[in-house]
Amino acid sequence: MTEHTHISDRPDVPDLTIPTGITPFFFPSARGRLVRLDRLANTLLSRHNYPHAISKLGGEALVLVSGLAAALKFEGSFSLQVKGEGAVSLLVVDCTHNGQLRFYARYDKEKLDLLPKQATALELFEKGLFVLTVDQHNDKDSYQGMVEITGNSLSEMASHYFETSEQLNSWIRLFCEETSEGWQASGLIIEKIASDPSIVFKDEAEITNDEEEWNTLTILAETVTAKEVLDTNLSNNDLLYRLFNSTPITIGNPKPVSYGCRCSRSRLQNILKTFNQNDLENMNEEGNITMTCEFCRYNFVFNQNEIQSTK
């Protein structure tokens, strides 16, 4: 993993990459991804200093979106928006085709204070919409699907989405905990698919029919624990073989995930150009205008000269 700092037009925020963040794996009639964000989880979550329940929810959402995006062939961004009517009114996570992640949440502190510290996703949102969007570059076809929130956890909400909107059998478990070393977030996503003849398994004799295999896989997957999936000393391959050693499995090449906010001074300065002079004066504090990126919480300060140059 590498870490350095952006300079110039970009904000001074960590540039952190986890090369083995997502490990794809395959069965005769299913595919999956093991997501382990490692230090990236704490880097993204601690940037916001959200209350515990929202940070935990955010970590689970980061795992979900990065895992889903890794299975798609696209160029652009893949995003989750959950629009709630409870303490959390909006949760946004997006991941680019090369694994760059970012997120933010909007919440009502007074409503949140009435909930337990370990509030479930349903308690945080109450009700609302679960929306997945593929936004492709170069004006290519984009896609958006949405369903009403159903389920107590974000895992259950995502499974309901795929069952309802995509008619796809899926098994999803998302984990996020605050440890002595900071936040850790990991998860498993498995999807039932038609058998892929391009995947070669070591023992073809062990291949069973689709329904039988799916039942076996979900039973094995249910044995996963937060302790082992969040254990940084347990390798991705060892964890997968521990879970699925009794069934044919092929493990693919890992994919990276990284800190991916795409804000910049020039982009925000262009936004300032859309405001009239009266609005700019109202935003001005002692000769400066401060614009904060909701994703990375970096404050861009524009001085009087920069403000004048926008007009």
UniProtKB/TrEMBL annotation:
- PANTHER family from the entry? 33 KDA CHAPERONIN (PTHR30111)
GO BP terms? protein refolding
* Protein name according to UniProt: Chaperone protein
Sorted keywords for this record are: Chaperone, Cytoplasm, Disulfide bond, Redox-active center, Zinc
* Gene Ontology, cellular component aspect: cytoplasm
Record's Pfam families?
A: HSP33
> Which InterPro entries does this one have?
Heat_shock_Hsp33, Heat_shock_Hsp33_C, Heat_shock_Hsp33_N, Hsp33_helix_hairpin_bin_dom_sf
> Which molecular-function annotation in GO is an example for this chain?
protein folding chaperone
